[in-house]
Design brief:
This protein has 486 residues and is an alpha+beta fold. The chain folds into two domains: 254 residues, Zn peptidases (Aminopeptidase, 3-Layer(aba) Sandwich), CATH 3.40.630; 155 residues, Alpha-Beta Plaits (2-Layer Sandwich). It has a six-stranded mixed beta sheet with strand order 1-2-6-3-7-17. Strand 4 and strand 5 form a beta hairpin. Helix 7 runs antiparallel to helix 8. It starts with 15 loop residues before the first helix and ends in a 7-residue tail after the last helix.
């Protein structure tokens, strides 16, 4: 049972056509229903913090109710809103026993826009054949594709051998504690029969809108967000003060950055590269480097200075495959610095935010202890976000095999189990013993992908519509009684 205080009344959006009329005005062709819905979704500012996920949840609830589906709106103790809607299994005994439910998961919140946009951040406008706006790819576009496939199943006369859940959550961009994390703890009954979750995190490579391979994420690195604080003597900046808080902080951070970052190959990284190497020459070269790395004896790294290049600090030559370094090291990135707000004032305290991404089997406690040692005395370290180790999702399960067979299709497009350096809400489900797969139905090129968490995020209309068709095909294969798992 769900206490009434944790639900919100959903607003039925009778004015939805008017809402999307302005964003799509001036387009050369009538956008699809999915494009109109995504345009409306993009006009809602759900920047986290504070999130304002209520607005997104109410929009989605209105669309579901218009289709005759009653959703649940669930509110965390701090007022963050997530949405849950369910289509039950309908297959009869002649179709065999019902299988576990499939969850379609995306997050409503987005990161802040930042500077440098050439079109309105929350305009939901069409320019150059694409929908522009924060969240177009990460992950409002995915949410609308999930919604289209969900509504397709609701309309279809085909019997459903599985229940399907449409889940839109709050707070992913700041860790998910008020969204997926809270839902699994507060409402485990909603996920009691779930076989698998389809979420963001897929790694696809495409050229001109054509997928060269589909990467289904089965494992990922773990977040460890740290805050480093230093104190010192405050005062006027005209006086010599080498022991100021900012000087102490910067000196400690320099030692931290100069320290070696040992490389280590985890099974998920090895499996990813091995699968890619079967058809990608660049990956074959990276796999050879990986095998050489595995065979190298561990040796103490040479002394390093803050000016030492990163690959030399790691005691090894640079890796040739772009981005691969992140898959074989515990990465550390200083992202925020705060001190005085006046140039002529020495603050008594200075702080830095450090975004660490741990390999799946890294020892978090040992890592923090080493960070404290490198920073030196007088600096304190606080953990702001952490995540326990979770097992990877199987690349041989019926759900994965159905995904792979459907995506490969008649053309035999390669499908590989992917390992990513980012983290998603999938980790919460894996920690609860529920398989989660990162799957993107979009074949995006590198230029488009670089707009995620950057200016001018956009999703081409053709890519969106192809994504809808792909998601409908995948979900039908997973759910309907006509499509037995391979």
């Amino acid at each position: 049972m769900h206490p009434a205080s944790r639900f919100l009344p959903a607003v039925v959006l009778f004015a939805l056509p008017a809402l999307v009329a302005s964003p799509v005005a001036g387009a050369t062709a009538t956008p699809s229903a999915a494009a109109a819905r995504l345009a409306a979704y993009l006009t809602l500012d759900t920047t986290n913090p504070p999130g304002n996920e209520r607005a997104g949840a109410e929009l989605l609830a209105g669309l579901l109710r218009a289709a005759g589906i009653e959703p649940l709106l669930l509110v965390s103790p701090h007022g963050r809103v997530s949405l849950h809607a369910r289509l039950p299994a309908t297959a009869t005994a002649e179709h065999g026993a019902a299988d576990g439910a499939i969850v379609l998961l995306h997050h409503i919140d987005t990161v802040p826009a930042g500077a440098g946009w050439t079109h309105a951040v929350h305009g939901g406008e069409i320019h150059d054949g694409a929908l522009w706006g924060r969240g177009a790819i990460d992950t409002k576009g995915l949410g609308i594709v999930h919604l289209e496939a969900f509504l397709d199943l609701a309309r279809s006369p085909l019997p459903r051998r599985r229940a399907v859940v449409f889940l839109a959550v709050a707070d992913e961009e700041t860790g998910g504690g008020e969204g997926a994390g809270w839902l699994l703890e507060a409402h485990p009954e909603l996920f009691a029969d779930v076989a698998a979750v389809l979420n963001e995190g897929g790694v696809n490579k495409a050229v001109a809108g054509r997928p060269l391979y589909w990467g289904i994420e089965v494992d990922q690195k773990r977040p460890l967000w740290l805050e480093v604080a230093a104190t010192g003597r405050p005062g006027h900046a005209s006086a010599a003060n080498p022991e100021s808080a900012t000087h102490r902080l910067v000196t400690g951070l320099a030692r931290l950055l100069a320290a070696p970052r040992p490389r280590r190959v985890v099974p998920a990284a090895a499996d990813f590269l091995t699968a890619l190497a079967r058809f990608d020459p660049q990956a074959r070269g990276a796999l050879a480097e990986l095998r050489a790395l595995e065979s190298e004896p561990a040796e103490p790294a040479a002394p390093a200075t803050p000016a030492t290049p990163a690959h030399e600090r790691a005691g090894a030559r640079p890796l040739s495959l772009p981005g691969f370094e992140s898959l074989v090291t515990d990465t550390l990135q200083i992202t925020t610095l705060t001190g005085s707000d006046r140039i002529n004032v020495v603050a008594g305290e200075a702080r830095a935010g450090v975004d660490v991404r741990l390999l799946p089997d890294s020892d978090e406690k040992a890592f923090v202890t080493e960070v404290e040692r490198l920073l030196g005395p007088g600096l304190t370290v606080s953990v702001r976000l952490t995540s326990p180790a979770a097992p990877p999702s199987s690349a041989t399960s019926p759900v994965y095999r159905t995904l792979a067979a459907t995506l490969a299709g008649a053309a035999g497009t390669p499908v590989v189990p992917a390992f990513i350096p980012a983290f998603t809400d999938s980790r919460y489900f894996r920690a609860h013993g529920i398989a989660a797969y990162g799957f993107s139905p979009f074949a995006l090129d590198g230029l488009e992908l670089r707009t995620v968490h950057a200016p001018d995020e956009r999703l081409p209309l053709a890519t969106l519509d192809r994504g809808v068709a792909t998601m409908i095909r995948v979900l039908r294969a997973l759910v309907t009684a006509e499509s037995a798992a391979p």
